[in-house]
Amino acid sequence: MKIVVSDCDHDSLDVEEKVLARDGLSFELFQCRTEDDTVARCKGAVIILNQYAPMTRKVIAALKPELRQIVRYGVGVNNIDLAAATEFGVQVCNVPDYSIDEVSDQALTMMMALARKLVPMNAATHAGAWDYQQSIPVFRLSERTVGVIGLGRIGRRFAEKAHALGCTVIGYDPVFAPAADDFVAARSLDEVLRTADIVSVHCPLTDGTRHLIDAAALAKMKRTALLINVSRGGIVDEEALAAALGTGRIAAAALDVAEVEPLPAASPLRGLANCLLTPHMGWYSAEAGLELKRKVAEEAARMARGEPVRYPVNTVS
Ligand code: NAD
C-alpha cells in the first residue's frame, strides 16, 4: 500500500516510521507546495499524511481512484477541500487534541505580554532605558473583560485560564452555548467586539469566518482593546488590522498566524511596534510534537488495517 507524506517540516519522521513499521508499512516523503507538485508526487498514494500542501478539488480528483485517506498534521483542515474529499469518498482525518494546552498557553502568554507591555519594555530596557513611565498606561488584568470568539477545545481552555487570572470572560460561538452558570458568559459577536478589553480568536477558518475581523469589526472594538489571533490568519483582515494599529483604532495585537505564511517580508504588520508576531508556533512543545506525529501515523495505520478511524473530519460511505 503506497503511503506518502505530501510535505512536512519536522526535523525527523522517526516516530511515523516506527508506528507504521509495526504493520509492515513505510512511506515516501516529499515537500509538495503547489497543486501540480502534489499531483505529480502523490500519484498512486492510498494514504497521504499532509501538512500544508494544497488538497484541492483538482488534486483530490487527480489522485483518485487510489486515494482513500488524507491525515492532516494538526487541527485546521482549511487546506483540504472537504466537499471534494467527501464527494470522491476520501476520508479526511485530523488530530484535534494534541496541543490544546500549548495553543491556549500561546494566547494567554500573548495576552499577558500585551497587557504588561512586556516586549517594548524589554526592548527599551535592553537599549539603555530604565523608565516604567514608558509603559503607561497599563491596566489591572484581573479587572479586564476577555472576549473569546470560538468556544471549542482551545477557546474554552483559554477562557478557563483567563478566568483563573480573575478576568471576566465572555464568549461567542454559534454552536456551543455555555450554561447560565458557566464561567464564560454567552454574548453575540457584536457584544464581544464592543465590550471586551481583550478579544481572542479561536474559531476555524471557513468561508463564513474569512475576514470575520475586518475594518467594520475593528471599528466596533474599544480604542484600548487588544486583539489576539492564534487560530488562522485569514480570519483577520491584515490590511484592516495594520491600518487600525497604525492609527490607534485599537491598542495592540498579537498574531501567531498570517493570511499568507510565512508572513511576507513586506507585510506592514512587521514594522508595527504594537503588533507582536510569532511564526505559527502555538501548537508546538516537545511533547505535543511527538504526540502529533504518533497520532497521525496511528490514524493512517488504522485505515491501512481496515479499522474505523478515530478522528474523522468528514463522513464517507
Ligand atoms: P474546535 O473545533 O474544538 O473549536 C472551534 C469552535 O469554533 C467550535 O466550537 C465552533 O462552533 C466555533 N466556531 C465556528 N464558527 C464560528 C464563528 N463564526 N464564530 C465563532 N465561533 C465559531 O477547534 P479547536 O481545537 O479549538 O481549534 C480552533 C482553531 O485553532 C483551529 O481551527 C485551528 O485553525 C487553530 N489552531 C491553531 C494552532 C496554532 O499552532 N496556532 C494549533 C491548533 C489549532
UniProtKB/TrEMBL annotation:
It holds the Pfam family 2-Hacid_dh. Residues 108-282 form the D-isomer specific 2-hydroxyacid dehydrogenase NAD-binding domain. The lineage of its organism: Bacteria, Pseudomonadati, Pseudomonadota, Alphaproteobacteria, environmental samples. This is Dehydrogenase. Residues 18-314 form the D-isomer specific 2-hydroxyacid dehydrogenase catalytic domain. GO terms for molecular function: NAD binding; oxidoreductase activity, acting on the CH-OH group of donors, NAD or NADP as acceptor; transcription corepressor activity. InterPro entries: CtBP, D-iso_2-hydroxyacid_DH_PdxB, D-isomer_2_OHA_DH_cat_dom, D-isomer_DH_CS, D-isomer_DH_CS1, D-isomer_DH_NAD-bd, NAD(P)-bd_dom_sf. Signal peptide: none annotated. Belongs to the D-isomer specific 2-hydroxyacid dehydrogenase family.
